[in-house]
């Protein structure tokens, strides 16, 4: 579901890992609905402070990127907003193994993408009613709560948002 907080959670994970020395490199790439192999290759390479030649085809660039990642050592690659499955090999993404110390995390709305890319599914739950109300009040302002007329309206709004943080923030 869009707006449940997948990207927000990954930003927190990314920022927390920046403070630790668990990985030599943290790489973040937004894939998005209009997936483009060359753009993803360029995004990953630029975060490694490298460049890929625009003259070469994607297969050759994939081999170059794979070598860059191998030389990098341990890394965490976060692929955000993945809409359709694709081959890691076609992009040049090193397959994570226990031996190479590399990890890959992706966010997606699609269980099908998770299956097709052979990833482990971790579902982000909706907010519980109390958590949703707290988030909504943090955006609306706590000073609104003493008003009994507004309280029932706010409860209705929170209920309509169905526990989706983005909807609560926008409406708040």
UniProtKB/TrEMBL annotation:
Gene3D superfamilies xrefs: Helical domain of apoptotic protease-activating factors (1.10.8.430), P-loop containing nucleotide triphosphate hydrolases (3.40.50.300)
Keyword field contains Nucleotide-binding: yes
Domain NB-ARC residues, every copy: 1-143
Keyword Cell division (UniProt): no
Record GO terms (molecular function): ADP binding; ATP binding
InterPro entries listed in its UniProt record: Apaf_helical, NB-ARC, P-loop_NTPase, Plant_NBS-LRR
A Gene Ontology biological process term: defense response
Alphabetically ordered keywords of this record: ATP-binding, Nucleotide-binding, Plant defense
Lineage: superkingdom: Eukaryota
This protein's name: NBS/LRR resistance protein-like protein
Originating organism: Theobroma cacao
The organism's taxonomic lineage, starting at the top: Eukaryota, Viridiplantae, Streptophyta, Embryophyta, Tracheophyta
């Amino acid at each position: 579901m869009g707006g449940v907080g997948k990207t927000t959670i990954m930003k927190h994970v990314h920022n927390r890992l920046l403070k630790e020395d668990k990985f030599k490199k943290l790489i973040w790439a937004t894939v998005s609905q209009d997936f483009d192999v060359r753009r993803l290759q360029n995004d990953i390479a630029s975060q490694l402070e490298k460049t890929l030649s625009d003259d070469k085809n994607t297969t050759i660039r994939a081999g170059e990127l794979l070598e860059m990642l191998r030389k990098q050592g341990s890394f965490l690659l976060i692929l955000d907003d993945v809409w359709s499955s694709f081959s890691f090999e076609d992009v040049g993404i090193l397959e994570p193994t226990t031996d190479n110390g590399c990890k890959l995390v992706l966010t997606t709305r699609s269980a099908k993408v998770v299956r097709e890319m052979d990833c482990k599914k971790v579902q982000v739950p909706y907010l519980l009613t109390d958590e949703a109300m707290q988030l909504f009040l943090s955006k609306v302002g706590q000073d609104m709560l003493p008003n009994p007329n507004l309280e029932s309206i706010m409860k209705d709004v929170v209920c309509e948002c169905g526990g989706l943080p983005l909807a609560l923030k926008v409406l708040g």
